[in-house]
Amino acid sequence: MMTSWQDAAAKKREEISALIPKEWRVGSLPSLKEQIDVTEYVKQYLSEEELSITESDAEKIVEKTTSGAWTAEKVTRAFCHRAALAHQLLNCLHEIFFDAAIADAKQLDAYLAEHKKPLGPLHGLPISLKDQFHVKDVETTMGYVGWIGTFEGKKGTGKEKVFESEMVRELRASGAVLYCKTSVPHTLMSGETVNNIIEYTTNPRNRNLSSGGSSGGEGALIGIRGSPVGFGTDIGGSIRIPAAFNGLYGLRPSTGRLPYEGMSNSMDGQNTVLSVVGPLGTTAGSLRLVSKALLAQQPWLHDPFVHEIPWRSEEEDKIQQLLQFVGESVPQEKKLSFGVMHTDGVVTPTAPIRRAIELVTKALEAAGHETFAWSPPSHKVLNDTGFRSWVFDGGRNVREAFALSGEPMAPQVQLYQNEMKEFTATDIAETNVAMRALKKEYMEYWNSTAKETSTGRPVDAIISPLAPWPAARREKYKYYGYSTWVNALDYTAVVFPVTNVDKAVDVKSSDFKAIDEKDQEIQDDYDPEIYDGAHVSLQLVGRRLQEEKILAVADASPIEVKGRAAQADPYEGYVFAYFTNNTRAGEQIYLAASNGNNALSWKELNNGQPIITSTQGTKGLRDPFLIRSPDGGKFFLIATDLSIGSGTSWGDAVRKGSLHLEIWESTDLKNWGTQRHVKVSPDTAGNTWAPEAYYDPTIEAYVVFWASSLYAEDDLDHTGSTYHRMLYATTKDFVTFSDTQVWQDAGMSRIDSTVIKEGDTFYRFTKDEGASGTGCSDIIQEQSSSLRATLESWTQDAACIGKNAGTANVEGPTVFKSNPGDVNGEKFYLFVDEYTGRGYIPLETSDISKPQWKVSATYTLPKSPRHGTVIPVTAAELASLTSTTSVASKRTREAPKIQARDSPVLPGYYADPNIFVSGKTYYIYATTDGTPGWGGNTFYCWSSPDLVTWTRPETPFLTLNGTSGNVPWAVGNAWAPTIIERDGKFYFYFSGQNAEYNTKTIGAAVAESPEGPWVAQEKAFILNNEAIKTNQAIDPAAFQDPTTGKYYLFWGNGVPLYAEFEDDMLSFKNGTLKSISGLTDFREGIFMNYREGIFHLTYSIDDTRSVDYRVGYATSSSIDGPWTVHGVILQKDESKGILATGHSSIIQVPGTDDWYIAYHRFAIPNGNGTERETTIDRVYFDDEGLIKPVVPTLESVAPELVPAY
């Protein structure tokens, strides 16, 4: 039975949840194991408009609401929605008052409409508050069950749900919208947020970790972007800890700078180390905005503890003047000087914190500033003295609060677990005297640094850890010294984000020597696996009441600090994003990493499987482009929304294609966020192809450009004549885009532009499809001093680049410069897509201003790369990517532990098997696999007496190698054969790459025996220019209808076709070509069987590079249909490591009712779409004569001889 405090807590918890509107409730929440990081997960529940609003910082929001571009109501609803989602995922809210907030927002909109001006500087800005602020109509529990239904634990005061804190009044007067109060640990004295009402508040980036405390609800809510900015309090790090743990900015001002009047608190009356109120937000500018707005309300007239110090813009100006110079150009007197605290001598920071310090130090030095090791007076003595103030009353205040309900104290509240004596007045006085002496000693040390700096000033600020680890694990916050020293000295401090934990880099040191047991314990609690991806932050510390100065440094230099920190290490490797082919599996995003600092040597990531797949638009992805943000902390990937593999014709792709871009974000190139499907092209466009982007610092935005065919506004069906132009739009966040502009209009088609800047010159490479003045449809090179200049301002440097380098037709260029130290030397590379042949080919030149593009002499690219991007990465980033395959869409397979009899039945890589029986012998003819782009060019004849023992001759019987082979018309891609016997002759049909038509066609060979010798026909006989077309003329399947004796061939990709053979078996009877309708999800690999009055049609679904490749099944009483689809009869079994089971053929053992299916799957282990193996399993029929679902096995089948018949 629950006790009374449990009843009260449960009731309050239910009341909070009940205030979330039903339409905002998530039906099934992911478990911690299923979803550790929910920062991207939450976005799936938000509209594009809500995402645009909630991903904006406070300054942008106010810019929109004060101008009327966004209504306060719309903004408030968006943040209420995201906050509701945040609470369901993180337990971060104590009080919800969305309805009141929306009503307030409507009043603000009415005010703006009537007065034509905003109410105040925060007009329409949603602000969240820590549950210490009193807000009318809602409670303040501060995490105590005993405070429910009271005013700070007291009943009948008349203040319940009526009284408001002074800052609440001032925020409302400034135009802010208040909508929720956030969770705190009961007592407020913990770096983890936990209480008996909402229980534990987790970290949105990593729910294994704490969100911090005591303003942990604020940290979690803002961290998941459920609030743009909020207010917390700080007596020992309670603003800075949550800000750091959640990758935010957080300001701890000095006492008396912002109003605390009328707020609830623990240990009220203790004035030795005072709690202060301050903001947390996503940017330093957000903190400045709200702090300045509050001081404009003259809080010193309403709070006797606030100093009469208005916002001092002149202090900001001083910093701006010092920061106008960068690097070696910084005059001595203009430098900033920083003390860097590597350790406080008590506890050693863990590996990621140490790396962050090094990154920031290098960044500041690279910007021309000075850094010095900070070796101040003892922090242990300072902190121990400050700690005394927290227990002056022996813990009586908090114990009385717990006694109100009888609730237990959470183990995280370490300070008050044991009985303590109360300090006497003399004890308190002695503590205050000691604190004064320590402050004086620290001041003198700071002043003494003027002797070390080149400026003659003491250091301007200190760079310090905020905690020994990036975030605390549950019940493991064991050391507060890195945050509390700032409170003891009453210094100003701002937390700022630096990087993220990388388990491959931030490893434990094997030679670490602990200072003592506590130091060792802290190191033992750090686990790179658990912390991987967590935010890593530091704090910037200034002297007392230096809020303007420290915020100005944080606001102006974090672009320097954070951005340069990410790039402090040199680039020593590359990452390559690409798609592979015009199939559904190929139209996904793949990644490869360079082998060291070598732009011409690559290895595939994620075992050659895609890292990103699409769930929106056409669900096809092509032409991926990667770009690193200017601050270095984020990567954006944009791609074309196009699926040729799903059956879209190129004509429809141009006229009726997508107007959207597909967009993802990542901080590490391994873990990618939620897909965004963003419309950028106008309705007059027919498509949006090959997007790229370039960051333009002059407008502080990305210029995103792509190709579109444009039609007249009255040509709604897009049937008129047109050509491709290059368009562009700008964006700061890849969420909201400017209006689209025309960038290149040459009067004929241009596509696939890519840009690089060298010195002051932009070099642009474009596929000039119209051959405007160049004599060839090829890549051209142009230059300009302005990125967005119109066509006439660009000068052409080179044309026919591919042709002159000796390639076939090319498109999809990507350009980049080699890294310093690349093993191939200093070069510029232009990868071009030879789409009719080899795929990507690297071209190189040593001088981009006077280019001599040529194909690189030797190179090893990933398998089958098509139009993509290469970007440079640091050694640490490269190591992180190549040391693990923990990327999106990762699938790990281990070799099965079952002892297989003979599975696969064919040794090596073979796919698309056609199983056949003749006489007393079984035969398999298959695609020879294991080559990039399915480029095999040979066919072998495999034979077996019993389905288990298979052999083949040493040499292939057909080689598709043009005049060098024995199939004159074909130059590779020997795919998916079939065989049939008629009148004592054997006919072998296959697809191959036709050199004359530059496409896949189907040809034939004839023999007197199934083992040959075979004579190939001079010409292919299915060219895909027939009256009915399929996407590709591939995958033939020959069949004799036993009910009529007629012979047929089935084939097709995307569209299944069949036709009746003439007697020569090398041509079709007129008027017999037909398509088959109704085959759900038909992809390819059609095959036909007949049994007891039923035609059985099997076919492949999805793409051969997909793990979900599988076999569909339909039946009919006639070869001409109609067909009844029965779903899937063969699919993967991940428990056995069996994936991508498809492209099958089925035989009946003559004289029996024994049936077998031959099919391919990914080779076990670690195979993929070009490393497939052939196996055989049994086929059984049910009582209705239908094929039962096939059970894929690792054992394959038992021997069965062909009986005499």
Automatic annotation (TrEMBL):
The record marks D1035 as: Important for catalytic activity, responsible for pKa modulation of the active site Glu and correct orientation of both the proton donor and substrate. Keywords: Glycosidase, Hydrolase. Pfam families: Amidase, Glyco_hydro_43. It catalyses: a monocarboxylic acid amide + H2O = a monocarboxylate + NH4(+). Residues 75-551 form the Amidase domain. One of its GO terms (molecular function) is hydrolase activity, hydrolyzing O-glycosyl compounds. PROSITE patterns: AMIDASES. The active site is at D912 (proton acceptor), E1084 (proton donor). This is amidase. GO terms for biological process: carbohydrate metabolic process. It is an enzyme of class 3 (hydrolase). Its EC number is 3.5.1.4. Belongs to the glycosyl hydrolase 43 family. Belongs to the amidase family.
